[in-house]
Amino acid sequence: MILLLAIAAGLLAGLARAWHGGCRLASPSLHLVWLVPVAFVPQWLAFYLPATRRLASDDLAAAILVSSQAFLLVFAWFNRHESGFWALGLGLALNLLVIALNGGLMPISPETLSRLVPDAPPGAWQIGRRLGGGKDVILPIAATRLWWLGDRFLPPRWFPYRVAFSLGDAFIAGGAFWFLWMLGKGHGKRQNKQGRSDYAYGVFARCRERFAKWQRVEPLGKRGGGKSGVLRSAVGRSSDSAENRLQR
Known about the structure:
2% strand; mainly alpha; elongated; two-stranded parallel ribbon; 2 domains
């Protein structure tokens, strides 16, 4: 959930930034994009789709979670040149570390669950079992390796959706938001050294070129008399012809 919120917020922020800058969202050149659905689809089937998640055993769920995190980490590594992917990769590495050290599932403590669901009766959580068929396993802090990397953070009380998330999830969400935000700078309106946009500078250059051509053109009046010279010649010829007729 925290990742979906970060993606939605980052996309809106990137669009607003692009609109304010008068450009379009940039098109990133991502590598190995096919790893994303390869990692996501098994997780969706094993943890989120009600019709299939009850069929996934604990061992299968652990294998799916570890392999999907590894696929996403490879994807982040090959795209580390993109903005935000260093944070996204760090978050994936932290999640993969704590998951691998605790049997292939994300640990969550009974203390966190009591804050997450305060109305739950005592003994509602069974130690060592998966939480609701999801990716979390209920473990006490004393029995959890690197417990501070598990799902231990909660959103504010006013937030409508209650969910626990890890430190790695926070880095992943921050990296996704930053990546989408940076797409808003776009490529349609770059700035040159003088601070002018490429479009404005091009218009200025064309106007300057036309003005220079106009300056190089000799004024019409200096070309063999121009219109005024032609007029004077015509008047002169008329006067000569009139004088000749009088003399006759």
